[in-house]
Specification:
409 residues; alpha+beta; 8-stranded mixed β-sheet; 12 helices; 8 strands; 12% strand
């Protein structure tokens, strides 16, 4: 057992820390974009706050707070800086797969003596893995879009076993000593500070037990998992696609709130042309715009939190033998999370950005940044799964097979 840095830390404590960090993150937004990742001061803030350990098993120095708390913290951090919220989520979250599906020996080594663990990842299998005949696997490849890579201690990736044709998908964990983070996260429209660099491996050598013949799209959860038994927590026997959609929805909800905060600020500071002693905040139309947007954003957060609790309960039922965590359940939860993200996008695009005025679409304006970040979310592979998810959920309800419908284009 590794003791957590603050054994008595509560969910209320960690959420409160995220709320209090928002003003600091707001001021660091330009620096975060310039660096292409959040600055070291922010990383140190996160270490002290315990954010990287929210989902980590207590056995390895974590807090096991669960999804509703994790998503709430990510929403608050993204409200301060969307790029930072995105990067935090996509490094602090992959502990779920490591703790859930790798054998105890591997987990002991991966979490080490102090439990310091952060792992970037990407959705597609890349490169090849070949055994070296000495109980190790050698990895070669370049994994793009690895959000949060600059501060990752490990990499959770997918690759193919070498062969002709290539073998099955392998899930693997590689320590930082075995990969290089490339300086190639430049020129993108939004999320410029998310640290979504490529990770490169050349003759990287890891123990064979740091691999699993499994895909993130279809993790083996029937009857529980290695992690749910080792840690006594059902959330370590989960399906990953729905969880990932929840991460993105938490960030989008945070961006929605950030845009509403900025909208309220600019309304109060914008004098009317013909009545300079009044501001746009005094006009009924703008009051209505803000209220309508907040209604959508708060509904998105309610859907996010409700679905997070539903996800936890689905894990519990699966481990208890009451109802399996099927792919159909995963489809249902993923679509609910995706719709939560869409509600926040609708509030930002159709109301807040559109009516804020063109001066707030300029470079350096926060409203422009929020629009760019949210628009970039819609280019991500997650939202591109909407159409196949619609079909899958429809087929599941009709009793028709749906697993032949590919999620990833």
């Amino acid at each position: 057992m590794i003791a957590a840095p603050e054994p008595e830390l509560t969910a209320e404590d960690v959420i409160g820390r995220a709320v209090r960090l928002r003003p600091v993150l707001l001021e660091r937004q330009p620096e975060t974009e310039r660096l292409t990742h959040y600055p070291k001061d922010t990383h140190d803030d996160f270490l002290r706050a315990g954010f990287y350990r929210m989902l980590q098993p207590r056995r390895y120095g974590g807090y096991e707070f669960g999804l509703p708390v994790f998503y709430r913290v990510i929403t608050e951090i993204a409200r301060g800086c969307p790029s930072t919220g995105w990067a935090l989520s996509l490094t602090a979250a992959h502990v779920l797969q490591v703790a859930g599906f790798f054998e105890e020996r591997a987990q002991d080594e991966i979490f080490g003596a102090d439990g310091d663990f952060r792992a970037a990842s990407t959705v597609a299998p890349v490169g090849v893995a070949r055994p070296d005949g000495d109980g190790h696997v050698v990895l070669d490849g370049t994994w793009p879009y690895s959000s949060g890579a600059p501060y990752s201690t490990h990499y959770l990736g997918q690759t193919l076993a070498a062969g002709d044709p290539p073998g099955p998908v392998l899930l693997f964990v590689a320590p930082r000593s075995e990969f290089t983070v490339l300086d190639d996260w430049h020129g993108v429209l939004g999320l410029r500070g998310s640290g979504s660099h490529s990770v490169h491996m050349e003759n990287a050598r890891i123990p064979a037990y740091f691999t699993r013949e499994a895909s993130l799209a279809d993790l083996p959860v029937e009857g529980g998992s290695v992690g749910s038994k080792l840690h006594g927590n059902p959330m370590y026997a989960h399906r990953a696609p729905s969880f990932y959609h929840g991460e993105l929805a938490a960030v989008m909800t945070g961006i929605g709130y950030a845009a509403a905060d900025e909208y309220a600020r600019v309304l109060s500071g914008r004098p009317l042309l013909l009545e300079p002693d009044r501001t746009r905040a005094d006009l009924h139309d703008y009051q209505r715009h803000l209220g309508e947007a907040l209604g959508l954003i708060r509904t998105a957060e309610a859907a996010l939190q409700h679905t997070a609790a539903d996800w936890m309960e689905t894990c519990r039922r699966g481990v208890a033998g009451e109802a399996p965590f099927t792919m159909a359940e995963d489809n249902r939860l993923a679509l609910m999370f995706l719709n939560a993200g869409r509600l926040a996008w609708d509030a930002l695009q159709n109301i807040l950005f559109r009516t804020a005025g063109s001066r707030h679409a300029r470079d350096g304006e926060r409203m422009q940044r929020y629009f760019r970040d949210a628009a970039t979310y819609w280019t991500h592979v997650g939202p591109s799964m909407a159409e196949p998810l619609y079909r899958r959920v429809g087929c599941d309800r009709l009793g028709l097979p749906s697993d032949h419908i590919p999620l990833i284009p």
